[in-house]
Write a structure and sequence with these properties.
Blueprint (H helix, E strand, L loop, with lengths): L2 E2 L2 H30 L5 H20 L5 H5 L2 E5 L7 H16 L12 H6 L1 E5 L7
Helix pairs in contact: 1-2, 2-4
Length: about 130
């Protein structure tokens, strides 16, 4: 039986993933510093944006879970009964940003988040694994 993820559980996973992503972006910034010399150019912004996208999209396409989602036993599933596609991951990622820019209102939608609706995905709670 699939149970939709609660807002608290989803936000907890977001906080966890944000801490991990901050660490990844810090490392990426350190690696890019010799090239950029601290200048924040459009190319540098695209570089960081791409890293953010691939952190989430790779996890969603390959198993439906980021590290934060694994910690909170959440899984992203396609409503089409198929594996998450790169197109769905892109739509979900972009609409998530728009949801945040709208003061998070897209995350508070009653049945399904804006990004879930647009990308034909939904978040469920995974059952605990038995210790057998």
């Amino acid at each position: 039986m699939e149970v939709s993820a609660s807002l608290v559980r989803r936000l907890s996973a977001i906080v966890y993933d944000s801490l991990l992503l901050f660490s990844i972006l810090f490392l990426a910034g350190c690696l890019a510093y010799p090239i950029t010399q601290g200048n924040i150019s459009v190319g540098y912004q695209i570089y960081l944006f791409s890293i953010c996208f691939f952190y989430f999209a790779w996890s969603w396409v390959h198993g439906g879970q980021t590290l934060g989602m694994k910690a909170w036993r959440l899984q992203l599933q396609s409503t089409r009964s198929t594996q998450i596609t790169w197109r769905q991951a892109w739509l979900r990622f972009i609409m998530s940003i728009i949801s945040w820019l709208m003061c998070g209102i897209g995350f508070l939608w009653p049945k399904r988040t804006w990004h879930g609706w647009l990308s034909d995905t939904h978040m469920i709670v995974r059952a605990k694994k038995s210790r057998h």
